[in-house]
Specification:
Layout (H helix, E strand, L loop, with lengths): L10 H12 L16 H16 L3 E4 L5 E5 L9 E5 L13 H17 L1 E3 L3 E5 L13 H7 L4 H6 L8 H7 L15 E7 L4 H5 L3 E7 L1 E10 L3 E2 L11 H18 L6 E3 L3 E4 L5 E2 L2 E10 L2 H22 L2 E10 L2 E2 L2 H14 L3 E6 L4 H5 L5 E6 L15 H19 L1 E4 L4 H4 L8
Parallel strand pairs: 3-5, 3-6, 6-17, 7-16
Antiparallel strand pairs: 1-2, 2-5, 4-18, 7-15, 7-17, 8-13, 8-14, 9-12, 10-13, 11-13
Helix pairs in contact: 1-3, 1-12, 3-12, 8-9, 10-12
Bound molecules: zinc ion (ZN).
Length: 433
């Protein structure tokens, strides 16, 4: 048996579990199709539940399907340290986005069991419902209802493209549990996740100590010109909103790539011209705008830049414009205590690490509302994610799990050896029907 400081997870066991999980909903191209609350999700949940039970953990399920596998602490009245992520995937998703965090957490608990490590606070491994939002919007649903950011009734009413609601889907797979949703204190929430970007790989680092999540603002930009015949109308006589947009974009991209480099992000994902006729100069163009930055002040400046460049381009051609705000997600700062625990664990294990802001949303954004929260990133090949080609190595998975283990030990306290009796002291689970 290793002493507590020398304690390391069993990387081979973690990898075998990741591979077994990846067989559920496996696609021919090597990814997974495991949409939230589908039959594949049910099988993934069942497998996770079996593994947790075999370690003596008691599994509870709440009213939106979030699963918590609990290992008692020596002071079981303390709020638990929760280690969680998600088992659902994008329609053509990768094998590690989500499952790495859940199964590494399970491996941490397995390692504690194996070495007789007891923690002062209880530890819970969480599988949050519908993180991806690919079948039922919005994303990060289970953690959002847990934290109180989303309304339960709204979430249960959300429907997939074929009209099946979350309420019906969750009952169909038998995962509407009896445990109350949220309303209890968590000592901390830690999430291990693949980076989904190229920064760690490019820098040659093994661990990202995530300090927060960058802010995002969504808009619809509408530019209004004048419809005209594509043939007889000379170019100088047109008030063409597409021409105006083109000029605005040139200025915008130049400024975002200079004034807001390297962190600013600018994306126009949906462009619609009306009346959408090949031989008519459009009267109006509508584009979706997604801007992101790790600092809210810089986001303010990017928004102002968007307005200035649009105004300048419109004024040249006598066009009008409107910017409608669709969604704003402020920058998230994780807990100093959790960041320090993750950094300390990475140093303790001797991994090359760097601080990093997350570029995408995670369940940890929501748990951060109600609990001290932190995240650990490991690199993924080429930064590729939300893609069947998503890849990590067994060694990268193991490094992330080792950091998760020592950060969890730090936050949960204890680590002394002793007889462990998990299931005997646990409250009765609100399991699936
Ligand atoms: Zn994810």
């Amino acid at each position: 048996m290793a002493s507590v400081p020398d304690l390391r997870v069993d990387g081979g066991r973690l990898w075998r579990r990741l591979e077994e999980m990846a067989r559920i909903g496996a696609t021919p191209a090597g990814g997974v199709h495991r949409l939230a609350l589908s039959e594949e999700d049910r099988r993934a949940r069942d497998l996770f539940g079996e593994w947790a039970a075999s370690l003596g953990l008691s599994v509870s399920v709440d009213g939106i399907g979030n699963m918590f596998a609990r290992r008692a602490g020596t002071d079981d009245a303390r709020p638990p340290v929760v280690l969680g992520s998600h088992l659902d995937s994008q329609p053509t998703g990768g094998r590690f986005d989500g499952p790495l965090g859940v199964l590494a957490a399970l491996e941490v608990v397995h390692t504690f069991e194996e070495h007789g490590i007891v923690t002062t606070s209880p530890i819970e491994v969480a599988n949050w419902t519908n993180e991806e939002g690919a079948r039922f919007p919005p994303a990060m649903m289970g953690s959002g209802v847990f934290s109180g950011r989303f309304d339960l009734a709204d979430a249960l009413r959300a429907a997939d493209p074929s009209g099946v609601t979350v309420a019906r889907a969750i009952d169909r797979i038998g995962y509407r549990g009896a445990a109350p949703i949220g309303g209890r204190r968590l000592g901390a929430h830690l999430e291990l996740h693949i980076e989904q970007g190229p920064i760690l790989e490019d820098a040659g680092h093994e661990i990202g100590v995530v300090t927060g999540v960058q802010g995002t603002r969504w808009f619809d930009l509408v530019i209004i010109g004048e419809e005209a015949h594509a043939g007889p109308t000379p170019m100088p006589r047109r008030t063409d909103p597409v021409a105006v947009l083109g000029r605005a974009l040139v200025g915008l991209y130049r400024r975002v790539e200079t004034e807001f480099a390297p962190h600013g992000r600018l994306t126009f994902g949906v462009l619609t011209a009306t009346p959408a006729s090949r031989n008519t100069v459009p009267g109006r163009v509508r584009v979706s705008v997604d801007i992101r930055h790790p600092e809210d002040e810089a986001l303010d400046d990017m928004e102002a830049c968007l307005e200035q460049e649009t105004e300048r381009a419109c004024a040249e051609r006598g066009a009008e414009w409107r910017l409608d705000s669709v969604w704003r997600s402020p920058t998230v700062r994780f807990s100093d205590r959790c960041i320090a625990a993750v950094r300390g664990a990475a140093e303790h294990c001797g991994y090359r690490w760097m601080p990093l802001m997350a570029g995408a949303g995670h369940d940890s954004v929501h748990t951060n509302d109600v609990a001290p929260t932190g995240m650990i990133f490991v690199p993924c090949e080429g930064g590729v994610s939300h893609n069947e080609a998503e890849r990590i190595t067994p060694r990268q998975a193991e490094a992330g799990a080792n950091v998760l283990l020592h950060a969890a030990l730090n936050l949960a306290g204890g680590g002394s050896r002793g007889p462990v009796s998990c299931s005997a002291t646990n409250p009765s689970p609100g399991g699936p029907a």
